[in-house]
Amino acid sequence: MRSKADGSSRTESASTPPHSSPLTPHAALVITPHAALVIFAKAPIPGQVKTRLCPPLTPDEAASLHGSFVLDALERSRDDRTTGRVTLNRVPLDRFVACAPSASHVFFKIIEERHGVQLLDQIGEDLGARMDQAFRAIFARGYQRVLVVGTDLPSLPGACYTEALSLLADHDLVLGPSLDGGYYLIGLRGPAPELFVGMPWSTDRVCALTQAKADALGLKTGLLPTWRDVDTIEDLLALIDETGLEAPCHGESQVRPSPLAPSLSARTAGVLRLLASRLRARPSAAGAKTAGL
């Protein structure tokens, strides 16, 4: 991660005593209603998702992997009920999916029916505008704690959402830094459009610049653990290696156990295992592994 974990004097951990929030001036006196989780997702359309993995993956393989990641994000946020509302850390949590290219896509309609989530369209010219619009739309419904998360983190534990909600009890902003310098999760207690304007998206400066903007706005920031998201072939190969899912060569011992493997769904573990087997025979993937890992 290229952003500084200690940030400035306004970046604090969950142990920092509560204070009066610039977004909610009397937060300690407010009885907070249920929170919302917004999962930003694209429909798994070959050639339109995970394009940075192609080659060596084919568009169909990349779309299958992406689809499994989206389902992972939904499954890690649910409990044993069939409704869209779950409870994390004794806080009722309503789940939304911000959809691209459209909430009318059959993939999202199936998700809506099977997972009991509410659908939103992603609206805006860039990622920042789309996230800002999603926050505004959800806050307009009366929610006072909102988390926005991506779908590129198949090994992220569900406890991350609980920790984010806990941090939002006495922080204005929560960020989940990713290893590439961006962030995989952002949580707010009120609209903060300044955080999404003039940002160099898809660069290694996003998380650090967001923290700097928050400091300038007087927002108290809490940080989640740094995590790896899967954007490039190097990320994918690293995930396969870290989870111990690489298929062994002939004569090699069985796949080694990994502490990250249990956090993967059986579906995604199977997809990764299949891709690992296929990638071993593809020179471009082997070259990436030799050069980057």
Please tally the β strands and state the result.
8
Q: Approximately how much helix is present in the residues?
A: 25-40%
Query: What is the H/E string?
Result: EHEEHEHEHEEHEHHH
CATH topology of the largest domain: Spore Coat Polysaccharide Biosynthesis Protein SpsA, Chain A
Kindly report how far apart the N and C termini lie.
16 Å
Tally of separate helices = 8
Strand content: 15-25%
* Main sheet properties: 8 strands, mixed
Q: Can you tell me the overall shape?
A: globular
Short description:
With 293 residues, the protein is α/β, with parallel strands linked by helices. The protein has helices spanning 59-75, 106-115, 127-139, 159-167, 206-217, 233-242, 266-279, 283-292, and strands at residues 35-42, 85-88, 91-100, 118-121, 146-149, 173-177, 183-188, 221-223. The chain starts with 34 loop residues before the first strand and ends with a helix.
